[in-house]
Write a structure and sequence with these properties.
This is Beta sliding clamp. The protein has 373 residues and is of the alpha+beta class. Helix content is 17%, strand content 43%.
Length: 373
C-alpha cells in the first residue's frame, strides 16, 4: 500500500473510528484499525464485535493494499503531526508515515485477522431525516437503564409498523416513548439496540440530511449509513417489558404549566433534595403547585408555580402531595422542545404521565417516590 492523504481528514477519521475499538486481550486485533486503500479512497474501519464503523476518505493511491494498526498509537501520532499531506506506505506488517520534517514506523498486524464487518448499506434501506431522529433519541436515551443484569433494558426498543417508528426506553422507574413518521416504509420489525450505538449515531451523522436504516434479521444486525460511513450494531437479545401495561389510560387530575418555571422550581428544590435521597414533593393546589424539598442536614425551600389545574376526579377535596426523584424531572424537562407541559395524575403512588403539549408524539412516564405516612 502506498498513498497520500491530508492529515486533517485522516486525523478526524482516526479519532472517530478509535471509539469503536476494544482492548480485549483474547482478540488483540480489536484494538486495531483496518486501513484499506483502493480506487482513490481509504477505508478506515473498527469494531468491538458489538458495533462497527466503516469510514471512507478521499486519497491519492499509488498502490492498493491493507493493514491493521493499533488505534491508540496511530491516532495519537497523526493528531500531533502538522497539517498537510502525509505519505504512507506499508511494508509487510509495518506502516511508514512521512511528512515535512517527520517520519515514523508503526508495527501493525495482517488484515486477514480483522473481523468481517458491513462495508455497504443494502439497497433495501429506508431513509430517516437526521433532524427528527436525533431529536427523538435525545428524548429517549436518558431513560435507558444502566443495569447490566437486565440486558433488554440497556437498549432502546424500536418498533417499525404501519409507516411509523416507535422508540421506547425504560429503567424501571421511568419510561420514554417517541413516535417518528416514516410513511414510505412498508416493512415491519421489532428490535432492541444498544444505547451506546445510538449515541454514537447522533454524533457521527449530525451533518447529514438523511440516514439510511437497514435491518438484517439473519445477522441480527442493524446498519445505519450516509455517503461516506456505515455504522453497524448488533441487536440486543431478550424480551422488552410490556410497556403499554403501565401507560395510564386516564387521569383524575390534569396540570398544565410552563416548562421553564417548573424546571426553575425543581432546580431550586434540588439544592436541598440532594441531601434527602433526591426527593422533591409536589403539593397540588387549585391554581398552582408548590415544589418542596427538605433536608435535615441543610434546610428547606418551597417554590410556587402557577398552573391550570383540572380536578376531573375531585381529588383536591383533600390534600394531594406526590413525590419524585428530581433528577428524573430535570431529564424530562431538559428534553422538551415546547414551552408548556401537561401532567396527568391519578393518585400519589401510581405512574404519572408527562406530555409536551406541542408534541403529541412524545410521552414520558415517571414512577413517584412512595412517601411514608
Amino acid at each position: 500500500m502506498k498513498i497520500e492523504v491530508l492529515q486533517e481528514n485522516f486525523s478526524k477519521s482516526l479519532y472517530i473510528a478509535s471509539r469503536f475499538t476494544s482492548s480485549k486481550v483474547q482478540l488483540p486485533v480489536l484494538a486495531n484499525l483496518l486501513l484499506k486503500a483502493e480506487k482513490n479512497r481509504l477505508l478506515i474501519a473498527a469494531t468491538n464485535l458489538e458495533t462497527s464503523i466503516s469510514l471512507y476518505i478521499g486519497i491519492k493511491v499509488e498502490e492498493e493494499g491493507e493493514i491493521t494498526v493499533p488505534a491508540r498509537t496511530l491516532n495519537e501520532l497523526v493528531s500531533n503531526i502538522r497539517a498537510g499531506q502525509l505519505k504512507i506506505d506499508v511494508e509487510k506488517e509495518k506502516i511508514n508515515i512521512k511528512s515535512e520534517g517527520f517520519e515514523s514506523s508503526v508495527l501493525g498486524m495482517n488484515s486477514s485477522d480483522f473481523p468481517k464487518i458491513p462495508l455497504v448499506l443494502p439497497e433495501d434501506n429506508f431513509k430517516i431525516q437526521t433532524e427528527f431522529f436525533s431529536q427523538a433519541l435525545s428524548q429517549i436515551l436518558f431513560a435507558v437503564s444502566q443495569d447490566e443484569t437486565r440486558p433488554a433494558l440497556t437498549g432502546v426498543l424500536i418498533i417499525c409498523s404501519k409507516g411509523k417508528l416507535t422508540l421506547v426506553s425504560t429503567d424501571g422507574f421511568r419510561l420514554s416513548q417517541k413516535i417518528i413518521s416514516v410513511p414510505e416504509v412498508k416493512t415491519e420489525f421489532k428490535l432492541i439496540l444498544p444505547k451506546n450505538a445510538l449515541g454514537e449515531l447522533t454524533r457521527l451523522f449530525a451533518e447529514a440530511e438523511d440516514i439510511g436504516f437497514s435491518f438484517n434479521d439473519k445477522e441480527n444486525q442493524v446498519l445505519f449509513g450516509v455517503s461516506n460511513a456505515i455504522l453497524a450494531s448488533r441487536v440486543i437479545e431478550g424480551d422488552f417489558p410490556d410497556f403499554k401495561r403501565i401507560i395510564p389510560t386516564s387521569s383524575l387530575l390534569n396540570i398544565y404549566l410552563d416548562k421553564d418555571e417548573l424546571l426553575r422550581a425543581v432546580k431550586l428544590a434540588s439544592v436541598f433534595a440532594r441531601d434527602a435521597a433526591n426527593v422533591v414533593k409536589f403539593s397540588v393546589l387549585k391554581d398552582s403547585i408548590e415544589v418542596l424539598a427538605e433536608s435535615s442536614q441543610s434546610g428547606s425551600q418551597k417554590t410556587k408555580v402557577d398552573a391550570k389545574v383540572e380536578d376531573v376526579g375531585g381529588v383536591l377535596d383533600k390534600e394531594f402531595v406526590i413525590a419524585f426523584n428530581f433528577r428524573f424531572l430535570e431529564d424530562f424537562l431538559n428534553s422538551l422542545n415546547g414551552d408548556d407541559i401537561k401532567i396527568g395524575l391519578t393518585d400519589p403512588n401510581s405512574p404519572v404521565l408527562f406530555l409536551d403539549t406541542s408534541d403529541k408524539e412524545y410521552m414520558h412516564i415517571i414512577m413517584p417516590v412512595r412517601l411514608q405516612t
